[in-house]
Every structure is written in structure tokens, then in C-alpha cells.
Design goal:
It is built from 18 helices and 26 strands. The chain is an alpha/beta fold and 502 residues long. The structure holds coenzyme A.
């Protein structure tokens, strides 16, 4: 272990092993865990708990808990607990392959909600009582305040709501994180809500530390492990083309005075397309940019370094091992330019609307009218979850959805007559981009939207079929506002399920 990280004598008394701490989590309870996009999640207690659950299961006993987090975690948490069938219910976002399989087999319940709604739903008790919080922190000050780790997510809410708190103090997180966070303690349920006093993405309105009464802490476990730290692949040709379309769009918006020269604060989903867009912006003509987003990924770190990005606000890091090294080695530089907030605030509709965020998110499919499916493959099988995409799409100043125009080696068109599941309605979707082109839907009525999306975004292999569908729907005499052929609208998905080809 490195220098002592637990300076509070009262909490030092509670130090124990992960196995001992895990044994304090009984079957049937609701557990709020830290963790967001593979950062700042507890690493030792969930694995010890999975082992504990396996032992009980081997004795023929049922042992399951419900797991609430900020967003996705990692194999050490979601993977380990799902593997032993230890999760009864999971919320609000996951991307773990084992969890995904169990959810889609109907062996785990999954409540997929907007990330900005989680805290208020928890306060209202919709998910039941929170029994235990298991929170990774980077250290504990002498007076018992908690130095948050590489993500904040719902940690403030879990600590407030839980009866008992287990802390993992991770020596593997750089101690230089101290001072980077901004924990706002002013949110409340209506009618006691007050305006959140933030008018710029770099405003600090809260505390640098998480506050937790020491008597709530039942265990402190020391760890020394890195976050998930997934590598991004180099942007492929499609991602680069999507990025180019988007950059051209931004340039045109600036020319027509609809965006300032340094754009507006950006929100960027994670993944390869998002990283390609950030790489494009890093080379592009815009300076003095800002970000107000959920997860700060490699592309944003590179932009902070180059100076293209003046500052970034997020609730979590989502970095590769190389980017973590860069962050750690230059933590003083980054601490001045990064603010990590609770996800209540990073995703708050009031702030997103006020700051005028440019929201850029990935999607699975869009239909010809601009409804977007971000979560379900062929309408039924969950991929990850809605995450914060709805918070940003509905409330942002510009809401962009991006995808390659085809999936599965061209067998699937990402532009379909009707989406098989709706996460973002046509009213929340302003810009659709594929490698084929960009459709600006602002100000257009449904039939105009359809022609624009088919013309600009569909793959040439599917364009004639989409046009044919649209024209036959228009001439069916069934209604001309949003024309559909009901018997055919989902037939593309049905055909894929039956033949492997849309
Ligand atoms: N039909 C069927 N499958 C499709 C598909 C479609 N139209 N489009 C993509 N897929 C499949 C891909 O083939 C791939 O499958 P595989 O895992 O078996 O290889 C998988 O879906 C993921 O696709 P990929 O192209 O790698 O997408 P991505 O990494 O860019 O992620 C989303 C796309 C939509 C899954 C992702 O952006 C997401 O989870 N979004 C919702 C949450 C969100 O927006 N968060 C942002 C932060 S607010």
C-alpha cells in the first residue's frame, strides 16, 4: 500500500477484509454501489460477495441482492455477481455481457431509467429501501470527509439513503483527484426545489468531498486496483465519415450565426464514433470549446491537452490505460480543467437546457420519421440501456444521433420504416447522421423528415426499399401526416429474425 489514505481514526477502526465486509451484506437487500462507465466502482467487496453467494448457492440456498449503481461498472462487479445469479434487480444502466445475457434470458430484472431520474426515484422509494451502500473512494480526511474516486454517479444519494455504508479505499486511484469534485447538496423533492445556481459549465456550486456520518460506516476495505480502463480502437472509416459530416454541420451553423465560434458545451456519448468526433474536433477549426457531459473519455483528455477544450464537466472518467497514465502524470494540469459532479447535476434537465448543450449520442436504429431506438436489438433484446441519452436529447440545444447506416456486415439497415423500440421520439431528435450523410430535421414535418432521412442517411442497398415503403404508405389513403403500412412497418425486423437479412 502507498501512503496512508484513511486519516480519520474512527474509520480506521473499521478496516477489515473484503470477505468480512461482504459477509455483512445479507440476502434480499438493496445495495447501492458506486461506479460509472467502468470508473470508481468497488472492486473487492463485490467479488468477495459473489464468492459468498456461490458458497450459499452450493448449499442450495437462494442468495440474491438488488444492485443500484451510477451506470455501467466492470467484470469485477456486474460480471462477478451476475455470473453467480446473485442479482435480483439491476438499475439504472449496464453494459456487461453476462448481465445482458441474464436479463435477456429473464433471469434478472432490469429497470432502465434516465440517469437524471435515479436519485429522485430512490428518495421517493420507488425501488424500495436502500439498505447498504458500497462506495469506492480515493481517501478519507482526518475529519471523516470522503475524497471521491474517478466517478461520482449516485454516490451522494446512496450514502444519504443507505442505513449502512461500506467504503473501499482504493490506493490505485491517484491522490491528486482530491479537489477535482463538486458535490452539490442542494437538490430536493418538489415543492422544495430551488433554482440550481449554475450558468456556465465550469461553475462550482458544491463541496469537494462526500459527506457521511462515521457511525453509518460498518466496514472499510483497502484496495489497490485499476479501473476497467478499456482501450478504444482507432476510428474506422465509417466513424471518420460520420465525424466529418458533423464537423461540416457545425461549421455551417457557426457561419449562419446559430452557434458561437466556440460552439456550445458538448455532451458526447462514449464509444468509437464519439471518439472519432472528438478526434475530428481536435483537428478542427473550433477553439476554446467546453464540455458538459457524463463520461470524460480519451478524446476529451487529448483536447484538454491540446488546448482545444478549455474545460470539461462530467460525472466520471472513461479512459484507456494510456490516458490514465497521462491523467495521473499531469493531474495538477487536469484538476484545473475538469470538474466531476454527481449525476443528478451532470444530467440535470434544468442545467442542460440553460447551458444549451450539443448532445451527441450513438443509436441502434432510427426510423424514417426520426424516432430512435438506443437500447433494444430487434425490439426485444436489451443491449445496454438508455443511460443519459434521453436527459441530453430532450433538453439539449441540438440533439444528434449517430450510427453506421448498416450493421452485421450489411445485413441490417440502421434506417428502418418503424423502429422496433422507441427511446427517443421524433420530437427529441434533431439531427441524424450516418456515414452516408446528415439529416437536419429541425423545422421539418414528418413526410419532409422521411425524405431527408432516407435521402441523406440510408445505405444505397436499402434506400430504394425505404423509398418504396414510404411512397406506398403515402398512397395507401390511410392518413397523410405520418404515413405507415401497419402490416409492413416491422416486417424488416421480422425478415431479419427469420432469414438473417433485412
Ligand atoms: N440492429 C441490430 N444490431 C445492431 C444494430 C441494429 N440496427 N446496430 C448495432 N447493432 C449491434 C452491433 O452489431 C453490435 O453487436 P455486437 O456487440 O454483437 O458486435 C452492437 O449492436 C453494438 O454496436 P456498435 O456499432 O459497436 O455500437 P456502439 O458501441 O457505437 O454503441 C449503442 C451503440 C446504441 C449500443 C450505444 O451508443 C448505447 O448503448 N447507447 C445508449 C446509451 C447512451 O446513449 N449513452 C450515452 C451517454 S449519455
Amino acid at each position: 500500500m502507498t501512503a496512508p489514505r484513511i486519516l480519520c481514526p474512527k474509520l480506521r477502526e473499521r478496516i477489515m477484509t473484503a470477505k468480512e465486509a461482504a459477509a455483512l451484506i445479507p440476502s434480499g437487500v438493496n445495495v447501492g454501489m458506486s461506479g460509472f462507465t467502468g470508473a470508481g466502482y468497488p472492486k473487492a467487496v463485490p467479488q468477495a460477495l459473489a464468492e459468498h453467494i456461490r458458497e450459499h448457492r452450493d448449499l442450495g440456498e437462494k442468495y440474491r441482492i438488488s444492485v443500484w449503481t451510477g451506470a455501467s461498472t466492470a467484470p469485477e462487479l456486474d460480471g462477478a455477481l451476475a455470473e453467480v445469479d446473485g442479482i435480483e434487480m439491476r438499475l439504472p444502466y449496464q453494459s456487461d455481457p453476462v448481465c445482458r445475457q441474464k436479463i435477456n434470458e429473464g433471469r434478472m430484472e432490469y429497470v432502465d431509467i434516465h440517469l437524471s431520474h435515479v436519485a429522485q426515484h430512490a428518495w421517493s422509494g420507488f425501488f424500495g429501501k436502500l439498505d447498504v451502500a458500497v462506495i469506492e473512494v480515493a481517501g478519507v480526511t482526518e475529519d471523516g470527509r470522503l475524497i471521491p474516486s474517478s466517478s461520482i454517479g449516485n454516490n451522494k444519494t446512496w450514502i444519504d439513503q443507505a442505513d449502512r455504508v461500506i467504503l473501499e479505499v482504493n490506493h490505485g486511484q491517484t491522490s491528486g483527484l482530491e479537489g477535482m469534485h463538486d458535490i452539490y447538496y442542494g437538490t430536493a423533492l418538489p415543492p422544495r426545489r430551488k433554482p440550481i445556481q449554475m450558468t456556465a459549465p465550469d461553475d462550482r456550486i458544491g463541496e469537494k468531498y462526500l459527506l457521511c456520518p462515521p457511525e453509518k460506516v460498518i466496514a472499510v476495505v483497502e484496495t489497490n486496483s485499476p479501473d476497467r480502463n478499456s482501450r478504444f480502437s482507432e476510428p474506422d472509416e465509417n466513424s471518420q465519415r460520420i465525424a466529418r459530416h458533423l464537423l461540416e454541420f457545425f461549421e455551417a451553423e457557426v457561419k449562419s450565426n446559430r452557434l458561437p465560434k466556440n460552439l456550445l458545451p458538448m455532451q458526447s456519448g462514449v464509444g468509437n464514433i464519439a471518439n472519432a468526433v472528438l478526434a475530428g474536433l481536435n483537428e478542427g477549426p473550433f477553439d476554446n470549446l467546453t464540455a458538459y457531459t457524463e463520461a470524460l473519455q480519451d478524446g476529451m483528455l487529448a483536447m484538454l491537452k491540446s488546448g482545444k477544450l478549455r474545460m470539461a464537466s462530467a460525472t466520471a472518467f472513461s479512459l484507456s490505460p494510456e490516458a490514465i497514465r497521462e491523467l495521473t502524470q499531469n493531474i495538477d494540469f487536469y484538476r484545473e480543467r475538469i470538474v466531476l459532479r454527481t449525476q443528478e447535476i451532470s444530467n440535470h434537465p434544468e442545467i442542460i437546457r440553460r447551458l444549451g448543450i450539443i448532445a451527441m449520442n450513438g443509436m441502434i436504429e432510427a426510423d424514417i420519421y426520426g424516432n430512435v431506438n438506443s437500447t433494444h436489438i430487434m425490439g426485444s433484446r436489451i443491449m445496454n440501456g438508455i443511460g443519459g441519452s434521453g436527459d441530453f436529447a430532450r433538453n439539449g440545444y441540438i440533439s444528434v444521433f449517430m450510427t453506421p447506416s448498416t450493421a452485421k456486415d450489411g445485413a441490417i439497415s440502421s434506417i428502418v420504416p418503424m423502429v422496433s423500440h422507441v427511446d427517443h421520439t421524433e420530437h427529441d431528435v434533431q439531427i441524424v447522421v450516418t456515414e452516408q450523410g446528415l439529416a437536419d430535421l429541425r423545422g421539418l414535418a414528418p413526410r419532409q423528415r422521411a425524405l431527408k432521412i432516407i435521402e441523406n442517411c440510408a445505405h444505397p442497398d436499402f434506400k430504394p426499399k425505404l423509398l418504396d415503403y414510404f411512397e406506398r404508405a403515402c398512397s395507401s389513403g390511410r392518413g397523410m401526416h405520418t404515413p405507415h403500412l401497419l402490416g409492413e412497418a416491422l416486417s424488416w425486423h421480422q425478415r431479419f429474425e427469420e432469414t438473417g437479412q433485412m
